[in-house]
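Hi, here's the filled form for the chain we discussed.

Project: internal
Contact: R.S.
Residues: 181
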Amino acid sequence: GPVVSCAVCVLTDNNIPDELIKLVNDSKKLKHKKREYICKLVKNISGIKYMISLVDCKEIDRVNIFNATLKTFKKSVLLLEKKLKCKSDIVLIDGNKTIPDFKDHKQLATIKGDSKIFSIALASIIAKEYRDNLMIKYSKKYPKYLFEKHKGYGTKEHIKLIKKFGLCDIHRKSFVKKILK
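And the returned structure, exactly as it came back:
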């Protein structure tokens, strides 16, 4: 499936509910129901704006996962600025690399930023929920792969299904080379 990123802009002149601040954490540490609830809360908060972008599997295979991820980061920020008129003072990035060719934006990369910085954690939650829901939709088109269960991650079950049925259009060929040998 695609790589999905989200840019979040938290407006400083709006109060963010304490409940949301307490709930938000690294998306990998939260169960689906909690992530889903957080996403519902965010939709009703005028002080939080976000934009999601994705890169499909063909582009991931062409440029690699790292470059595809940086591409979605940049795309999300630019969409947030253009469509929602939300320009931030600094772009906070989860990881140890900033976005290349983005010199007109001040950037700060933070390792494990999704467990340290509210806006990065929130972006990771929104992106994960969006991607998981997208994979559930893909499961209707490709039912034999059970994407609704494993969301496209390399579980034992998913690997077994790839070996049985081969690849479908949304598989990242660069990720499954070893599996298919």
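Let me know if anything looks off before we file it.
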